[in-house]
TrEMBL record:
Its cofactor is Zn(2+). Keywords: Metal-binding, Methyltransferase, Transferase, Zinc. It comes from Stichopus japonicus. Pathway: Amino-acid biosynthesis; L-methionine biosynthesis via de novo pathway; L-methionine from L-homocysteine (BhmT route): step 1/1. Binds 1 zinc ion per subunit. Zn(2+) binds at residues 265, 349-350. The keyword Metal-binding applies. One of its GO terms (biological process) is methylation. InterPro entries: BHMT, BHMT-like, HCY_dom, HCY_dom_sf. This is Putative betaine--homocysteine S-methyltransferase 1.
Length: 428
């Protein structure tokens, strides 16, 4: 983030100019750099100019007030596929073991149009690392403090390359479902808060909470930072894992002090939007004026709409989810429907790849006033006209793709899966 009142210098000159809330004059085709260092910004077109002005000088809530904010996408699932995260544990040791892999994924999302670099701190609490049993002999290196510190540094480095914000990510801890009590859970959360304070992250994002009570405790911990708070739960229309409705979950998150509330993970975009509409109505009736956010999974999950456990009960998870993958056309439709519903923080979770995020950024380019940085290689549907194959040039319209029903190519493919009944026990 480039705060208002910061000074910048032209590459080809020695004069300083000031970026204020009301005045910022920069000629196009100009390279600019903050006085305090960092990457150069190329202002080449009016869209780049608007991105430079609008997106580098505003804090999180100001950005939400001025238009849609595009989040990032999948980390644990994508890095597992790339060979840097272990399935089952889903823990983020990669930030210290393979930092370049994490950094590259951040850059992929930045190039796709993400306004936010979320720290890869999912499941990074000490009790989760112990629960997973990974690297028990390396606890002096693989621990909450070190992982969170490294994750913050990686996210900040990439965010500063493109004027993005850094969100400190908080997620459930095993101690909650193990009934270790509030003091234990809060202690795990506060370890992360200490690092986030040290690293000066821009806002906080709690996510993937299956129980509203744990989400409330997370918000209580995040409030100690005196920063904007976003909080989302992995709930669908059936509510949380303790039977609390999505309407009540939304109200209780707002009551606890979240500035942005919503849903993430567990369900596909269209189930998630259905849930958000329920939340929106309840929040309005209760008199809460908060922003809405959505970061769904990148797969079709229609058969588990009414199953509070979410997509992990699908028999294909985690090694055979590819046939369910959303197309970029699905995601563009999701982005438009989310925006029309009034959602202003729109991103993705597990299964959402960089090209999915690009579909969001491109669909909402007019509302955001800018296309994503990778626009030089994205000519839209009309780029197919450049092909030498007639069967591609005939598909160069949006209408063609929006009316297509993709085939799986599998002779014995199934439309919907059979879901096993729920067994006793809790989920973390």
């Amino acid at each position: 983030m480039r705060p208002t009142g910061s000074y910048y210098q032209l590459v080809h000159g020695t004069n300083w100019f000031i970026h204020s809330a009301n005045c910022f004059t920069v000629p196009t085709s100009t390279l600019c750099q903050p006085v305090h260092g960092g990457r150069w910004f190329m202002v080449a077109t009016i869209h780049d100019y608007k991105r430079f002005v609008v997106h580098t000088g505003k804090a999180f809530l100001e950005r939400l007030a001025s238009g849609p904010v595009v989040g990032d996408g999948s980390f644990v699932v994508t890095l597992e596929r790339r060979g840097y995260v272990e399935a089952g544990a889903w823990t983020p040791e990669a930030v210290v073991q393979y930092p370049e892999a994490v950094k590259q994924l951040h850059r992929d999302y930045l190039r796709a149009g993400s306004d936010v670099m979320q720290t890869f701190t999912f499941y990074s609490s000490d009790d989760k690392l112990t629960f997973a049993g990974n690297h028990a002999d390396q606890r002096e290196i693989v621990n909450c403090e070190n992982l969170n510190r490294a994750a913050c540094d990686l996210a900040r480095e990439v965010a500063d390359e493109g004027g993005a914000l850094v969100a400190g990510g908080l997620s459930p801890v095993p101690g909650y479902v193990e009934s270790k009590g509030k003091d234990h859970v809060m202690g795990e959360f506060m370890k992360q808060m200490e690092v986030f304070k040290e690293k000066k992250i821009d806002f906080l994002l709690g996510e993937f909470f299956g129980y509203i009570e744990e989400a409330e405790w997370a918000i209580e911990a995040m409030k100690t930072m005196h920063l904007p708070i976003a909080c989302s739960m992995r709930v669908g229309p059936a509510g949380d894992l303790s039977g609390v409705t999505p309407q009540e979950c939304a109200i209780r998150m707002a009551q606890a002090g979240a500035d942005v509330v919503g849903v993430n993970c567990n369900y596909d975009p269209f189930i998630s939007l259905e849930t958000l509409e329920m939340m929106k109505i309840a929040l309005k009736e209760a008199g809460y004026d908060v922003y809405l956010m959505v970061q769904p999974v990148g797969w079709h999950t229609q058969e588990i709409r009414d199953d509070e456990r979410g997509y992990t009960v699908l028999p294909e998870f985690p090694y055979a989810m590819e046939p369910r993958l959303l197309t970029r056309i699905d995601v563009a439709r999701f982005a438009r429907e989310a925006y029309n519903l009034g959602v202003r923080y729109i991103g993705g979770c597990c299964g959402f790849e960089p090209y999915h995020i690009r579909a969001i950024a491109e669909e909402l380019a007019v509302e955001r006033g800018v296309r994503p940085p990778g626009k030089d290689k994205h000519g839209g549907y009309e780029s197919l006209k450049k092909s030498m194959l007639d069967n591609q040039t005939d598909r160069c319209t949006r209408e063609y793709w929006e009316n297509l029903t993709p085939a799986t190519g599998r002779k014995n493919g199934k439309l919907l899966a059979n879901i096993a009944p729920r067994e006793n026990g809790q989920q973390t």
